[in-house]
Every structure is written in structure tokens, then in C-alpha cells.
Amino acid sequence: MACIGMFSTCPFEVSLVQYEGLRMTQKMQMFSAACMPKRNILASAKKCKTIKAMASPTVTAPKREKDPKKRVVITGMGLVSVFGSDIDTFYTKLLEGESGISLIDKFDASSFPVRFGGQIRDFSSKGYIDGKTDRCLDDCMKYCLVAGKRALEDANLGYETLNNMDKTRIGVLVGSGMGGVSTFNNAVDALTRKGHRKISPFFIPYTIPNSSSALLAIETGLMGPNYSISTACATANYCFCAASHHIRSGEVDIMVVGGTEASLIPSGVGAFIACRALSQRNEEPKKASRPWDKHRDGFVLGEGSGVLIMESLESATKRGARIIAEYLGGAITCDAHHMTDPRSDGLGVSSCINKGLEDAGVSPEEVNYVNAHATSTLAGDLAEVNAIKQVFKDTSELKMNGTKSMIGHCIGAAGALEAITTIKAITTGWLHPTINQDNLEEDVTIDTVPNFKKKHEVNVVISNSFGFGGHNSVVVFAPFTP
């Protein structure tokens, strides 16, 4: 599904008013779905009620993977977020319905029509990046290194442990939607003001999107597959899908996977303003991100990084790892429609969900929670809901929330932070609210967990991410059962 619905003078672009279901007063609006406790959970997993898989004369009941070499489990998580770098604190803030959105002060935004965002404050790389290296790196890479190393620690894969393992069987795949934009911006500034001789020698290696993944591998000595995927706001989910294939094929035992982004800089904010993508609630920044609310007016730009340790069940069992949850499967599709507009029929998204469930061996009836892309844009929020309704015919037991309502839209890192959120929902049994739900769209008949957290035993959860170019991605998680 494409990320934004843009009004354009280009003859081949589709005006947002053509999207079914939107009010006529919205036809000049620009953006839709924006883009651009440590313990084994066996006890809680046993409580999950058994739901009969969908069956019909032409569709056989789905079967989940049983081979421990091909089952993919989550054994570690790490993040850098607007709520800090501790995962329990991060999720507690979400459950409390606290907004991490504030006025920008990392640069002078006083002349900008949008002066707020999901800015990371008080970030420290101490203990994870040496001082000399830290001074050279783009924030995008710093966030990745801290999140990645914290995830390895969480999985009991510290330096000593890794040194006794076959590092050629551990890969790294951390994507970014925009890469080192600060480094790029600084180089252009140096070029225009002082000439090419003043361009930093770090310009190329610290700008290209694969740099974060590469540096994490260099810092940890991991010699398995190493690359980066860049599919705008769908980036992290694409990485999870690709990483699972490396594990299931037997090529590796472990993948360090996620997304990272640090585009909350003058050119980044200015570019999204130029696209008319962002909310302009400067007087009420904490109320700006409001998925599915009738008065939403755009998304809120955020930043951060999220990393998961994905591992074969066989590997995790052999080393006695703590298993947090299971990755059941995922899928990617393309709208093949428009660079920014969503398909009005929702086909790209609904087919992606169906393919993801098929890959996971899950029937629609088994899913009882959706962590939605839900960026707080006019067309995208409704398009996603319509696609979900196409797949899940009975939504009476379905819960759906929007993490971006509190942390903003972190572009390439969004899916990674939301994957961590879904896993915490599994392990805690609590869903965070979608805040700023004051006047819900009539078409949104699914429970959005409005404004207050809810107790909810998660059976199977899907997490959606969509990006510019019509990139759709869905990943499926569940409690781990042997």
C-alpha cells in the first residue's frame, strides 16, 4: 500500500478525491498512510484458547512449521526510542498512554510551519560506542549500534559468548529508509559554502543506507549475511521477512534484524513539510498524531531504532536461550498503482495480509490483535482499515492499535519499534491505547483500544508497515509453545 495521497499537477497522478470513502472536504489534503519482564512465556501461552482453523471445500486448514531448524523464535530485543533505550520503560510509557511528541529543540525550527516531532533526548551511547567513533557517526548509525548491541545482550550473546560461536552463521540485516541524512546534509552544506575539499571523508560510507548494518557487523565480528533493505516505511518488516528466509534455509542460525532512522533534521522536516505530509498542530503537539480520528491532519515525524534477535528454535534450544515469542511468518507485496496514493480497493494490503497468514500457517480466525501502520493521515488510515475488514470478516474479537499515536512515525525504524511493541503485548497481556481518539471515523468499526490500555490475551498478532512506492509488508508473531 502506498503511503501518501498527494494532489499533484502531474497528469498521471491520482487525486486523493478519487479514493472511495473520503469526505469531499478532504480532497485537497495531501498525505495518507505516511511514508515515506524477562521470562519464558510458556505459562501464558498455554492459556491461549484454541481456535479452529478456517476450512472450506477448496481451502485446507493451515499448518504451522514443526521443524525446529525452520521455526524462528525471538530471543532478544533492543531499541532506541523517544522514551529511551530500556524496553520495559518504553512499553510502560505506551501502556500509560504517554505522548513522546514535543517541540523540536535540536535545531531552530521557529521559522518552520511544523515545529514538533518525536525527538530523542538525552541519548547516550556510553558503553556501546567509543568516544572517538561516536563523534564521527551519523545518529542513524549510533541508534543502530546501541539498539543492536542491547538486543544481543538481551539474547545472552555478549562478546565472550559470540567469540565461542561460529560467527559465519550469524548475520546482520538492519535497514533504513533514508540512511545517514545528517551526514549527507553536512556534506552538501560544506560543498556549497567552502567547496569540494571540505567534504568529509565519511560522506559516502556514513550516508549509504547499508552503513548501519555493516558497522554493527564490524563492531561485533558477525560474518554471516550482511546487507540493508530500504523500502521506505516498510523497511523493517521487509528485513524480518528476509532474515527468516536465511534461517529457514539453514544458511544461518541467528539474524540480528531491524530498522534505524534519524531524519528529524532541518532538511528532513522541511522535505516532509514540502510534501504537506505533517500535522501542523504546533499548539498541541502531543495531540497531533491521532490515527482514525476525524480531525487528523497528517503524521508526526519521529526517529529511533529497533532490533530483534531472530533465531532458529534448534539453535535457541541448544544454547539454552530465553525464548520471548515466535515469528510465524510474513509477506511483502506491491500495490503497483502509484508512488504515494493507496489503492482504493485495498487489494495490495489485503493480499499481503493473506499471504502473510499463509506463510505463518495461520487462519484469519486465529488473529485477535493488529498493530496497525496507522500514521494519522487521511486516506491511508481508512485504506488500511478497509483492507483489514476484507481479510477478517468477523472483527468482534479483534483489537487494533496505533503505536505512532505516541512515538510518531519513525520511517525505516517504525516496523521494528512496532514489532517490539507487539511482542511486549504478547508477554504482558496488555495492549497500549491509541491516544487522541476523540472523534472516530464511522468506517472504523474495529476496537482501536481508544485512550486507555486494555487487558488482552494475544493469540496471534499481525504488524503492518507500508511505504512509498506501494510497498506492503506484514509480519506475524505469536506466543511460543514447544
Automatic annotation (TrEMBL):
What region holds the Ketosynthase family 3 (KS3) domain? Answer: 69-479
Q: GO CC terms for this protein?
A: chloroplast; mitochondrion
> Magnesium: is it a keyword of this entry?
no
The protein's matches in CDD domains, at most eight in alphabetical order, are given as:
KAS_I_II (cd00834)
Q: Name one GO biological process term.
A: fatty acid biosynthetic process
Q: What is its main location?
A: plastid
Q: Which EC number(s) does UniProt give? A: 2.3.1.41
The record lists the catalysed reaction(s) as: a fatty acyl-[ACP] + malonyl-[ACP] + H(+) = a 3-oxoacyl-[ACP] + holo-[ACP] + CO2
Q: What does this protein do?
A: Catalyzes the condensation reaction of fatty acid synthesis by the addition to an acyl acceptor of two carbons from malonyl-ACP.
What is the protein name for this chain? 3-oxoacyl-[acyl-carrier-protein] synthase I, chloroplastic
Can you name the source organism?
A: Medicago truncatula (Barrel medic)
